[in-house]
């Protein structure tokens, strides 16, 4: 059981909730703070104080005063009018994360919603009722307005949800689970949609996969080194301590641990004096990606505990400020950094694949073919990796450098962070497949060199992977192997993999 406070959620806890179905409850103290904030909103309405989003229109309509009797209708109209996302829905894991993060943000007590709003979000989460949220349509400032509006529809019994393996009307799912639809009160619609939870949720899911991929890339690279008789000296601790990046030093250490006891690696001067950069510079390149991923993790763990709606209510309503915490720039930057970091893991992996299949660069059978010429072996696997890497380069263009004005130029600078998070996820999926291709080729190369001479860790990993991808004894439809291996990497949480 995870207790949400609005201040202390970690990525580790989020992963348990999202993927393992860990139940969630709200801290009573935090619910009390939320209730006090809602009381402040109620008093603002009663006193007819003019406060943005409570009794005014939105965006360019912020100067339009709303009659006291219409403040509830205002919130309902807001949700319906802003639910105009398009494209394929986010994966259920992302929708699930959005519910979690929105509830956590509202628990901070700055948003003016009733505790029942938070309770309903958590009921949907705990009962596996996941709103159908289109991926496209957010500018990443003024919050993820369109995606979060689709999320909010489910709370009021409108829109669609994924529930028990099917897509259905949210009203049906709420009845099945005994959840009462919300009737929104003052500010509650705005509080539900004015935030960064779509881009952040997509970022959380992407980061968790990227972290696992980065670790897997190292043991795959270690098997590649064995297939190529790579030189271990370049991973000596002194070399990396001399530069001073701890991530680089950590990669070198893990590589040494993976290769400990291997009879397939070499020393400088035994076969060649130096390896190519894609081998020799694994700690430097992978380490730099880890530096970027560490930055992403830091920003995500701040954002998942952040108040990102507008206005924010302080001092029991005595201070209500329209600010810009909904602006997604910090996460937009983080997503662009993650795109580049993961794309580079694929980039250097593809270069190692080339060294495994190119007979001019190794002493292995050409393209790892069992009968070079008659059978093409892994030739086109490298083509596929090259295509994916090239696509990544296009996707890695930073979304955060773009902006376009909206709401009659009231909202004249936006982050595009949700686009960045979506593209980051696409890059992660492509990189997963590139690493799967490297693993297929590395397994074959190590087999040619003699698996009895592998290190214990790489041999253990070899045996696990061979259950997924058989040895290449003749040409076959390698697309099946690539997809099976990529799926295994996505779902492989074994200790040897990490």
Protein traits:
498 residues; mainly alpha; Fumarase C, Chain B, domain 1; Fumarase C, Chain A, domain 2; 2 domains; 3-stranded antiparallel sheet; two-stranded parallel sheet; 9 strands; 55% helix; elongated; disordered C terminus; HutH
Mean pLDDT: 94
Query: Between the first and last Cα atoms, what is the distance in angstroms?
Result: 26 Å
- Stretches where pLDDT is under 50 for at least 5 consecutive residues are 494-498
Characterize the largest beta sheet: strand count, sense, and whether it forms a barrel.
3 strands, antiparallel
- What would CATH call the architecture of the largest domain? Up-down Bundle
Instruction: Find the CATH topology of the largest domain.
Output: Fumarase C, Chain A, domain 2
From the alpha-carbon coordinates, what is the Rg to the nearest angstrom?
Answer: 26 Å
């Amino acid at each position: 059981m995870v207790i949400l406070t609005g201040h202390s959620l970690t990525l580790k806890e989020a992963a348990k909730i999202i993927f393992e179905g860990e139940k969630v409850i709200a801290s009573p103290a935090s619910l009390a703070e939320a209730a006090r904030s809602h009381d402040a909103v109620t008093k603002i309405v009663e006193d007819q104080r003019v406060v943005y989003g409570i009794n005014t229109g939105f965006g360019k309509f912020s100067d339009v005063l709303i009659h006291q009797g219409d403040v509830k209708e205002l919130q309902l109209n807001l949700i319906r009018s802003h639910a105009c996302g398009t494209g394929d829905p986010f994966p259920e894991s992302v929708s699930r994360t959005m519910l979690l993060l929105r509830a956590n943000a509202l628990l901070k007590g700055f948003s003016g919603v009733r505790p029942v709003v938070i309770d309903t979000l958590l009921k949907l989460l705990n009962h596996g009722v996941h709103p159908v949220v289109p991926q496209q349509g957010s500018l990443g400032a003024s919050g993820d307005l369109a995606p979060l509006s689709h999320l909010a529809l489910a709370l009021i019994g409108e829109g669609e949800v994924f529930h028990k393996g099917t897509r259905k009307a949210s009203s049906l799912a709420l009845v099945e689970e005994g959840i009462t639809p919300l009737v929104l009160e003052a500010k509650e619609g705005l509080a539900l949609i004015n935030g960064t939870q779509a881009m952040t949720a997509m970022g959380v899911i992407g980061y968790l996969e990227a972290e696992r991929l980065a670790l897997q890339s190292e043991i795959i690279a270690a098997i590649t080194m064995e297939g190529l008789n790579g030189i271990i000296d370049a991973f000596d601790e002194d070399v990396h301590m001399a530069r001073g990046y701890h991530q680089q030093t950590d990669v070198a250490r893990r590589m040494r641990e993976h290769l400990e006891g291997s009879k397939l690696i070499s020393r400088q001067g035994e076969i060649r004096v130096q390896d190519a950069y894609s081998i020799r510079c694994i700690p430097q390149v992978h380490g730099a990606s880890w530096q970027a991923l560490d930055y992403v993790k830091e920003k995500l763990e701040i954002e998942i505990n952040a108040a990102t709606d507008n206005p924010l209510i302080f001092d029991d309503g005595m201070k209500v400020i329209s600010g810009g915490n909904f602006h997604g720039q910090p996460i937009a930057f983080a997503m662009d950094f993650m795109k580049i970091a993961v794309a580079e893991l694929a980039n250097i992996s593809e270069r190692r694949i080339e060294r495994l299949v190119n007979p001019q660069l190794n002493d292995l059978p050409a393209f790892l073919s069992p009968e070079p010429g008659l059978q093409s072996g892994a030739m086109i696997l490298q083509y596929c990796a090259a295509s994916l890497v090239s696509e990544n380069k296009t996707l890695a263009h930073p979304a955060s450098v773009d902006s376009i004005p909206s709401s009659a130029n009231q909202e004249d600078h936006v982050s595009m962070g949700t686009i960045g998070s979506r593209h980051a996820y696409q890059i992660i999926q492509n990189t997963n497949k590139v690493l799967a291709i490297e693993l297929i080729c590395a397994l074959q190369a190590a087999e040619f060199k003699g698996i009895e001479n592998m290190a214990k860790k790489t041999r253990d990993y070899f045996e696990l992977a061979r259950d997924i991808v058989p040895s290449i004894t003749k040409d076959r439809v390698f697309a099946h192997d690539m997809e099976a291996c990529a799926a295994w990497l996505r779902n492989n949480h074994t200790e040897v993999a990490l």
